[in-house]
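WARN retry 2 of 3 for item q-0093 after timeout on previous attempt; input resubmitted unchanged.
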Amino acid sequence: MARRSITQLGENESINEVYVASSKQLRPNRQGNLYLQMQLSDKSGAVNAMMWNANEGIYKRFEDGDYIRIQGTSQFYNGAMQVIVSHIEKVDARDVDESDFMQVSPQRMDDMLKELAEHLRAIRNIHLRNLAECFLIDEALIARFRKSPAAVKNHHAYEGGLLEHVVNLIKVGKAIVPFYPQVDEDLLVMGILFHDMGKVDELSTDKGLAYSDEGQLIGHLVSGVSIVDRLTKEAEKLADEPFPEELALRIKHMVVSHHGKLEYGSPKVPMTAEALALHYIDSLDAHMHGFDKLLADDVNTDSRWTTYSPQFGRKLYKGGGEA
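OK item q-0093 returned
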């Protein structure tokens, strides 16, 4: 019998399937009775799940990141799908086909890393190329970067998502540079590489997608600047000469300003041509990916419109059929 993926769930369906558990919490309701709240996911997406009348024993039956078999029923709540769970049991990872849960295959990650290396080694500025080389030879950083998601939700929220996001942005960035000669292509590529690099420390995939303690306390912008500082020191050793101070400042400015607005978490707004270009192509890639995901996950299968999206602040038009 074929497995039932998250995005295939319809209203009021009986479910007996294996998913990855994350973000579990044991909480009291208004009457003081405990219930279990968690997220279930597979490679197609994620859904919130609740188990009423839970207890400490059920809560300790599994950990975030474990495979669990759940029995329950799907339902719509506030325009979104959720699952009401009646039974949970932990499943041995050896009994699971991991390809059902990985959105980006290991081979695809290897291919994207190779493509990224080709872009970085094509950089003409010798200082920036040395910096890129220091990144490429840092095996520990590459290993974390290769697995990191780009977010916990909304866009590229899966292992390999950050790598995919960066490669997409470099290709978009290189495509627009001929129309904007004031933008330095090498500097833009380097800013794209490092703009979300701090997410290797901010986000964790060890127990499902979640924020690490460093992510909660510091955030990826500060962590990203620290990584740039460390690698520029390595580049100085490689070249046996100081790394140009202005180049370092411009890269770090792109990291701290790429959200675009102070209210979006950037301590600085874009003040260079490369920082401005990075902000807009980063937003474009994130929103277009979020658009595709919203349409794929939408529970309004019989409507031309999606449900309301908090990410976009609106419904989105799906089209289809005659007007």
